[in-house]
Design goal:
Blueprint lengths: L2 H37 L9 H12 L7 E8 L2 H8 L1 H16 L7 E6 L2 E7 L4 H11 L4 H4 L10 E7 L7 H16 L7 E3 L2 H22 L3 E10 L5 E12 L3 E3 L5 H7 L2 H19 L13 E5 L10 H11 L7 E6 L7 H13 L3 E7 L5 H5 L6 E4 L11 H16 L3 E4 L5 H10 L3 E2 L8 E2 H12 L2
Parallel strand pairs: 4-5, 7-9, 9-10, 10-11, 11-12, 12-13, 13-14
Antiparallel strand pairs: 1-3, 1-4, 2-3, 6-7, 6-14, 6-15, 7-8
């Protein structure tokens, strides 16, 4: 082999070694990158949830019951930031939040981004809720660099919850799920900086929600939902003028369930629309039967039945057509149907609501504002709302007959309603004294246990027959 051949062979060997070394370096780099991606969140730089659980387990091996806890912090209405300013701004905000939270970590604490806009802090349990709330207040008080990412005068709020680790050897994912259950339950009912503690009762509530969600469609098919009627009477003569239709769920394994146990969930998942329509169907069916109840086949007394319409219907462009279709099916005049909208709906999308109310009135339906007085700007709403009826919130009657201030308020509302050509209905009338008080104040219609509790259709029909056909 000549010298040139030797040089070439050496060069090839060196090149092969270099290539192998480079390949090894690339593999090592990619391996480190993969490990980093497994251990660190790509948006915030915090530990991933998997890394978080691994590190927490190491600490809990030698922990005592109730020594540690999980604190969950969820940014309220984070979609507003993403929708208004884009995901880049949203991700930057998450990064700054992570930096802010990290700057307040104490020895032994571990923080991670659980998912989306939710963070989890593993920390010592201070044993006193006020101390936890104070810590949350400090963590959720935003520095200037975060405020600069938000719209002017926009306040970032958080839903927070805590799970106390009673069994350090337990399943971590299950513990964090329980903290999340507490967060969800408290999200709509707790003020910012307040902490919702997990309790076993929340598990039962969560299981009930799952049970309801899984059985609601079948319940419609099996006709488990029943419409009850609570009579309304005229104050001046005590005669029945109609009723409010109220939904009940006669669940085979639980018995008769009242609306507060399932309606909020149906409002959230949209199933309430099916419920409302089924209630209207039953109301129209009842009015059709009543219209032929007299011996000569005529209507003994025209009635007005009200039913609740959820705010979710306001997004339905076919709402008026759907309502008209049902009343036409039973040959019911729309003016015998009163659509009840809660006062809280008035604040959510005022223009859309006014348009829907005007459309319903245009085709003949009556409109009532339910729970009037429970909101913050009730009087201001009336100048714009094309309502026919105001239903006074039953909170007015807590001590109404003996309270001069409440008497002034109720009298003022009733007088104002009369001047606006609106009828007034008093809800929650439970005593003779309340009835006399409201009659004296000039209220038009009464509804409450003093007169009658909600009842099945057959019982309401019997009450009407006794009054108008006996």
């Amino acid at each position: 082999m000549n010298y040139t051949a030797v040089v070439i062979a050496v060069c090839i060997a060196v090149a092969c070694v270099a290539a192998a070394s480079l390949a090894a370096l690339i593999i090592l780099y990619n391996l480190k990158k993969s490990v980093r991606s497994i251990e660190l969140d790509d948006i915030t730089g915090l530990p991933t949830f998997a890394k978080f659980k691994h590190d927490v387990r190491q600490i809990l091996r030698n922990a005592n019951p109730d020594e540690y806890m999980f604190l969950m912090l969820n940014v309220d209405n984070f979609n507003f930031i993403n929708d208004s300013y884009g995901f880049s701004r949203g991700n930057l905000l998450l990064l700054e939040l992570a930096n802010h939270f990290s700057s307040q970590l104490q020895d032994g604490e571990i923080l991670c981004r659980y998912y989306a806009d939710t963070f989890i802090l593993f920390t010592k349990n201070p044993q006193l809720l006020p101390l936890i709330e104070e810590r949350v207040y400090q963590m959720t008080t935003m520095p200037r660099q975060i405020q600069e990412l938000l719209p002017t005068r926009y306040t970032l709020t958080f839903s927070t919850s805590v799970y106390y680790i009673t069994d350090p050897s337990g399943d971590l994912t299950n513990m964090i799920d329980k903290a999340n259950i507490a967060r969800k339950i408290g999200k709509e009912n707790v003020l910012t900086h307040r902490v919702m503690e997990y309790t076993k009762a929340m598990d039962e509530e969560n299981e009930l929600k799952k049970e309801i969600t899984l059985s609601m469609d079948k319940a419609i098919e099996n006709k488990e939902f029943e419409v009850y009627f609570q009579p309304k009477v005229y104050f001046d003569n005590g005669k029945i003028m109609g009723a409010e239709a109220l939904i009940r769920w006669n669940k085979p394994d639980r018995g008769l369930m009242t609306p507060d146990s399932f309606v909020p969930l149906f409002e959230h998942n949209g199933f309430i629309q099916k419920i409302d329509i089924s209630v209207l169907e039953e109301v129209c069916h009842f009015l059709d039967d009543w219209s032929h109840a007299a011996s000569d086949g005529t209507c003994p007394m025209p009635l007005t039945i009200s039913f609740n319409l959820s705010r979710t219907h306001l997004m339905n462009p076919n709402l008026i057509r759907d309502l008209q279709r049902i009343v036409s099916k039973y040959n019911i005049l729309p003016n015998h149907i009163e659509v009840e909208l809660t006062e809280t709906v008035m604040f959510e999308n005022k223009k859309r609501l006014i348009r829907a109310m005007n459309d319903m009135k245009r085709v003949g339906f009556s409109i009532s504002v339910d729970d009037f007085g429970s909101g913050f700007s009730s009087l201001n709403l009336l100048k714009d709302m094309p309502a026919d009826v105001i239903k006074l919130d039953k909170g007015f009657l807590s001590d109404g007959e003996n309270n001069s201030k409440e008497a002034v308020i109720i009298t003022s509302v009733i007088d104002m309603a009369k001047k606006l050509n609106m009828k007034t209905v008093a809800e929650g009338v439970e005593t003779k004294e309340q009835a006399q008080f409201l009659r004296t104040m000039g209220c038009d219609i009464a509804q409450g246990f003093y007169y009658a509790r909600p009842m099945p259709k057959k019982d309401y029909l019997a009450m009407l027959e006794e009054e108008y056909l006996a």
